[in-house]
Structures are given as C-alpha cells and as structure tokens.
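Why predict the complex rather than its parts? Because the way molecules touch one another can change local conformation, and only a joint prediction can capture that. The input here totals 1061 residues.
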Amino acid sequence: MSKINRIKSSFIDTTKEINFVFNGKKYKGFKGDTLSSALLANDVKLIGRSFKYHRPRGIVSHGSEEPNGLVEVICDHYNEPNTKITTVELYEGLKAKSQNCWPSVKYDLMSINDKLSKFISAGFYYKTFMWPSSFWEKIYEPLIRKAAGLGSLSLSNFSRNSEKGFLHCDVLIIGSGPAGLVSTYIAGLSGVRVILVEEDFIYGGSLNNEVFHISDMPAQDWVKSILKNLDKLPNVRLMKKTTVIGMFDHGIYGAIEKNKHKKIEQIFWKITTKKALLCSGSTERILPFQNNDLPGIMLSGSIRSYVNRWGINNLQKVLLFTNNDDAYLTAKNLIENGINCIGIVDTRNNPKKTGYKLKIYKGSQVINAFGKLNLKGVNIINKEGKITYLECDYLGVSGGWNPNIHISCHTGVKPEWNQQILAFTPGRNNISTHLKAAGSASGKFTLNGCFADAESKIKNILNELKVKPKKYVIPKFNRDKYNIDPFWFVEHGSQRKWVDFQNDVTIKDIEIAYDENFRSVEHLKRYTTLGMGTDQGKTSNVTGLAILAKLSKKSIPEVGTTVFRPPYIPLSLDAVVGPQIGKNLKPIRLTPTHNWAKANGASFTESGLWLRAEWYSKKSEKKWRESVDREVISVRNSVGFCDVSTLGKIDIQGRDAQDFINKIYSNGFAKLPIGKVRYGLMLREDGIVMDDGTTARMSENHFIMTTTTINAESVYRHLEFCHQCLWPKMDVHLISTTDAWAQIAIAGPNSRKVISKILDKEFDISNEKFPFMSCKELTICGGINARLFRISFSGELAYELSLPTQYASSFVSHLMKVGKEENIIPYGTEALGVMRIEKGHAAGAELNGTISALNLNMEKMVSSQKDSIGMILSKREGLCLPGGLRLIGLKPINPNNQLISGSHLFNENENRSPENDLGYVTSSCYSPTLKSFIALAFLKNGTRRYGQKINVSNPILKNETMAEICNPIFVDPNGDRLRG
Amino acid sequence: MNEFIYYGDASLLKRPKWDNKNAEDKFYKYLYLRKNIAGIHKELWFHQQGDRSWLIVTRNTKNHEIIRVELATEVVKGLDK
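Output of the joint prediction:
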C-alpha cells in the first residue's frame, strides 16, 4: 500500500490524501500528484503493454511527451483511452486501467508478438498482408483491427460538457516556464493585452522540477512572487490546464482547456493574437541501447522532477547514463535527498567536474538492461571494452534536449539545426511573423540564457507593436554552461534497441527501411511509423534522424526533419465539436403557426432548418396515409390551408427592379403588369436550373419574389451577387423578408368563399376583378395589412395570403372558425407534396442540380431575345440533346404497386444495366384523387412515349414494377380548376 | 455557420456580353477556365452573416496573407470606367 513518507515538497500536500484505483487495485496519493507520480510513489512501475510487441512498459517522462504511460481513464459515463498518466492530475476516486493487454498487464497473451518480432518488423503490414487480395477485407483487416490500435473506445453516447471560446490579445505567451513568466511580466507591465497559457495544472514550467535559487530565493518562491504581481495586472490573463494545439493563419491559435471536475469539462479556445512568443521549453531525449524499454528506465530530468516536485523517495539504486551535463544536476539532487545514486555513466572522456562524491564511469556506455517486468540491472562497457554489471532499479537516461519547436512548424516553416546544442530550433529567418520563440524552446539551455532571451524577444515584439517596454530587471542566476557530446545511440549488441517506444520502432527497423530504400525522412517515418504515435515522437524523432544520418553518412541537417503538424497533443473530437451536437448542431426554425399546429395534432418534418407540419392526425386515423389522403381530398373537394411561410421571400425595389428581375429569370419579365404574378425560372450561369418561384409586381418599382424553401438563402446570395458584382449601377434594393411575412396557402374550390369572409369589405376578389395570377395589397380582419396572391401549387382555385408574422397564429385560428361551414382543414407538407405531384410541378427532388429547362419541358421558358443568367450556356449541345431526359408522369399498371423514388427506368426486354438505363423516378406518392400510386420521373425522350409501358426497377430494394408513361400533369391538365 | 462565404476567383466579375460573337465560347471560358495562382490572388467573399456585401479579397495563396479587401461594387464600377 501507499507510503506516506515523501520528501518535503511545496507541491505535495501530504495532509490531503487522495484515493484512486489502478487496474482494479486501490492506492493512495496526495493533493498535487499526477497519476504517474502517485503510481511511482506506490512502486507501480509496470503501466501498460507496447503497441506492437506487447512489451512491458513503464513511465518514461513527466509530461505530455510521455510515450509509454497511456491508460484508459474510467469515468462515470464513458472511458477516455490513450490518456497520458503524466498529465492527469490525481483526483479522489480516479479509476484507470492499462491498455493493450489481456487478460492483465502482467500476463498479456499478446506478448507472443514479442517472440515473433522477426516476422513483424518494419513494413510488415505492407509485406505480409499483400495477397490474396480477397483476404484483405474478410481476414487481414479485422485481424489487424483487433490486434492493433491504442486503447479502445467505450462506445457510450454520453457527451461531456464541452464549450468553444474566443479570445483576443496583443501577445500570446505559450508556456509559463522562466522565459514565459519573464516575458509575460514585461509585456504585462508595458500595458498590452497578454494571455499566458500553461499546459500543467501549476505555473512555473521547468522551474517546478528544480530546487535551486533565483534572485536569492527558492525558484518556487520566485515563481509565486511573479505570479502575485501578474495577478495585479488587469491586462494579463493567465490560463492553466490549457494547451496550445496549433498555430494557424493570421495569428490564430487553437488551445484546449481541460477541467475534469468543472461543470464544463473542456473548452476549445480560438485565440486571435497580434504576436505570440513560444516559451514551450524543451524535452529530453532517450539513448537507445539493448532493452532500453524496460520499466524503470526513465529520462534523467524526469527522475529529478519526480524527486524534487513530487517528493518521490522510494528509488533504491539509481544509475544515470548521459552524454551531457544535465544529468549531473539530477545526481546532485538525488544525493541531497539521501537517495542512493550509484553513479553516472558518461559517454564523454572528460565529463563534468563535480564538487560532491559521485562515482563517474567516464567514456562508458550502458549496453544492455536486464529484468523481466522491471529493471534489475545493466551492463556497462568502458573505453577499453570491459563489461561490468551494475545492479539498479532505476536508470535515468539523458541523450540531450530538444527544444519544443512543434508549434513553430505549423505554418510550414522548417526548423534549423543548431550544432552547439545538437538539436533543431525554430526556423529563425522565415519564422511566421506572428511567432517568435524564447528560452529553451529557442535553444537557450541555461537559465541565464533563458531570461536574457525572453527579455530581448519580448522587447522586440513590443517594439513591433509600437509599445514602449517598461523597465524590469531580469533575475540573476549563475549556472554552468550546457555541454553535450554528439552521441546518439549505443552501437554495441545485436538485440533490439528502442527508438520510438509508443510505436515499437527499433534501430533495426530504421536499418531495414534504409536497406529497402525508404531513405527520405518522410518515407522512413511512414514505413517504420517512427514518431507517428500520440506523443508524435517528442522523445524519439531527432534520435531516429541521427540514426538515419549515420546510415546514409550524412549530417542530421542534411537528412532533414519531418514537419510537425497540429495538434500538439491529442485532441478528442468532442472538444472540437463542442456543444454543437444533436439538436444543438444547427438552429431550428419554427413556422409562425408552429404552436397552433402542435396543438392541433400535427406531426413535424425537417425541411432545411425548418420544422414544418407534415400532416394533422385525427384520433380515428391510425396510419399517416389516412390523414394525408383525407387532407388531399378535403382540399380538392372544399378547402384547406397550409403554412407556406418557409418559402423564401425577397423584396425587390428600385427603378431598375424590373430590368434586374428580367436578367435573373430566363423567361420574359419585362412586361409584367402591376398587380400581376408570374412564374419564373431561374438558371445558374452554367444553364442548369437553380430555382423556380413566382414574382409579383406590387407597384411600378416594387416586386416580391418567392423562392423554394431550401434555396431561400442561396437565391438571395445569388441576387446580391448579380447586383453587386455584375450590375452595380442598377438601382435595385434587395432584402429578405422571409421571417417578416407569414404566408398561408388557402386552396380548394371553396377558398374564395372563405377568403371573402376575412377580407375587409371594400375588396372584391371575384374572378373578374381578381383573376388567376393576380396580386393585391389589402387589409383583412379589420385593418391588418396583407398581400393576396392568386397562385396555385395544388392546381385548385387557390390563394396565398401574406400577413405580418405576429398575426399568423391567431389568423389560422380565425380561419378555422370562419371556414367551419366549408369544413376547412389545415394540411401539411405531405398533402402539399401529393397535390404538387398530381399537378406535375417540379420541386427539390426534380431541381437536383443536374436538370436543364429542357429536361423540365420548359425549354421555351428560356428566352434567347434577352440577356439572362444562364441563357447562353443553357443552349450548349449537351443540355439540348434531342433524346434527352424529359419530365414525365408514371402510373403503375396495377394502381396498388408503389413506385419507389430513385428507381431506374428500363425497357422491359432489356437488361437492367447502366447502358440501358433510360432515366429515374424523382418523386412518388399515392394519389387519393386518382386512387393510384403515381410518380414523376425523368425519362429519355419521355414526352414522345406517352402511353407506352416501362419497367421501374429498384435492384437495391429488389422491386420491379411496370408502369405507363403519361403526362406529368395528372389532375386537370387544362387548368380549368385554378382559373375557376 | 460562417460569417463569410467563399465563392471563387474574382474573374467572375468580368461577365461577357450575351450578344457578342462567340458568346457561348466566351461564357464557357468565363465560367470554367481559372488560373491556379501560387501567390497574389483576387477572390470573392460574401459577408453573409454581416452587411451582405460582396467583397474582393486580395490574398496570397502561399501564406494566406490578406493583402486588401474591397467592395465588389466599387471594383466593378472602376472596371467599367
């Protein structure tokens, strides 16, 4: 069980115990712990199994660079796989389990892969699963899917509370280490708006791993004092638990804030800034040698961090292996805390001089590690080739440091090689104008260097912003120079040496890739999967490049580097989606009569963003068709009304309004009299039909255009384009009035009778005074402004009445009362659809973006006597083929056989194959008027085939029906009813 | 939903005359032939969730730098002069 005895650390509160469960076992940690520090304190070294070979793996690092420590965190409603234990702040009741192992992390059956490693080295997928190709889908892929993949999804449909946020600032500082804090403070004092983001749950960055003094006070006290000062600055916003995941164009940065126990668990921030300073620090590198992946082998700096920050003291015998000076600081801190550091294996012949007692194996290398599930000891070799076994339970490795340059590459800027620190730094000359890097992120590996660099870079930025920097004396700190040996990996030995732990890539794999001529960095990466894990090779990339450089006898900069892409850390999709899920995905638009319809038995259907009443069920009606059939028959026999407010309404005014509309519609609009409505056909410039509708001329310079519901926005945009971009000199003013005016269709032989009852007395709508295609502004119900259009979608005597939206609901109630005598009924979109199919009107299913005027039998509606959008290209040969598709009607031979939309049309005696395809069904319904199923379809040469039979075939639904080709206008083809 | 909607190459402003000779060929070129510029590019944007103006945006396609934004109406009036 847990050990209370930790070294005293200001970050760990040993009075506050936290209980947690790992792999079903209970443990205790303290406030301030991460899951990884708490597990280490509890002597849990084995965390998971590796991706490919299922090798036992333990904690390597202490931050988001962690390649091994991936677990599944078990929450109440979901599990979160691939969680880095080094980044999980410990909380009461936390539950987590290992990944990639079965039945348990200790006895993992898939570890057989490790024994088979010869057969599954680099490129094994490409080689093994090649043939026969029929095996791929049924055998190989399911097999690989089962075995591969990191972690697994819980498949719960629970969604966390995620938000999206937007922030603006002058300077964004990424990282709150020494460089980040100093630059934030200078920028803050100078008065610009600063945002400081920190990935960790405390500020301070690398300073939190150290126990040295800054300006004569412990580093942590210095951090506290500067934070206190920052808190007083209202122009500075500090954001912890927030990670910048990417830099995008125009100074936009994405950042993810995670707050496990807050009401909103994660916020995806879009930060727009004038300038940014990357103070993201650096990450230590590993050194590959045989079996260097055993649990217990960690990064040297991370061991130091676990001791200093988290007070871990249950390390028995620690050995360090280094090619640089940094490991000496680890040794010093271990010794100061009474932990047994058995020595430093230094690849250099002239290692750093120390002022304290420490065994140094100079010019030596660790060549092999021993132990089954965790480290028991290592073999080291000295210059003379003498091999010595050293017993140890932890080995701290330092292969040098890589600046965390990832963000600086996101806009495509290549990093530069710095030979002094043997690492890539952000490209200086062509770095994005928004971003600079400071501190160890720009290769300054001494604290003094960090402070000085931060000061100069932030002053630079302030100058660019034309702000005078306020004076601030940067802290004094004496620290040694950073010295590193260009030593990349241990050559001794033939067993596997691990480069990328997470993707199980060894030196051997890189050699295979090289031998097989995958020699460019990008090829190497994809062939071996080096650096392609969730850690993006933060600890392994440069080491891999060094090995490739050695193989190809080139320098590392000659070999080049792959470009880092966003996101910097794994980003879950629910964070990107935010709250826009389910019903929040898009706004819902309700019609003005929605509540009335709901109270009167309507069911609703989605039409774009709108919810529209599809039919009104009576209690006696068990099936939807009963309701729809009744509604159609009621309209055709007496009268009904339907809310058609969703149709787009565009108010067009101006001296040139008529000429403008004449250019928009392909048919003639130049001589539309005042008080008249005309059907208009609108083409795209490529000659395809865009939309149709009616346009009414209310007065000399005032027109009202209607569009289909779906195209309301795009037609309005098109009109604005035509006006602003093509004919800006025309005196035309456009505004969408879709929401301002409700529109109610009142249809049926008794519609005139009903409307007469609501019109104010002075208005006469007799057939003589107000014939078909008339329009008029008038008043109803005692003074309410309204517009009446005598237009018909149903084919009956019909009107559409426009009135201000706010009256619509009470208007339809009133309509029900006054139409009682005529048995007026409300009807929904389904009955509306049935009646329009019966009348052969094209709608969305026909205007599908491939259809020309000719296809709709409307070729005569494209006037070649005037300029209109799409006229010229509608005359293209391909759109005017004599045998082209034509809109026709279909009646099944057996009236009870449904014709399915999407079915294709074939001559009965021909094979059902694409070359014999003659067209397709667009809309179908049951017509209660004809007591038969009917359909609209496009058929090649269709208008010449009326009366012939055709096969309506739907191979997907295995349905074949014979139908008769007919005029698409099934009901009242001469239009006597609508003119009556 | 986005504040701006991208439409395409600003060459769409130069619509051919319908009664020209070879109008069909000219319209074909106008509508379908585009230069794929690596560098300074003029393009059309619509301020849909705003003042509903059509804009000519001059953008460097290499680094997405926005160099200039003009009202389409002004640009077209200038073209006609």
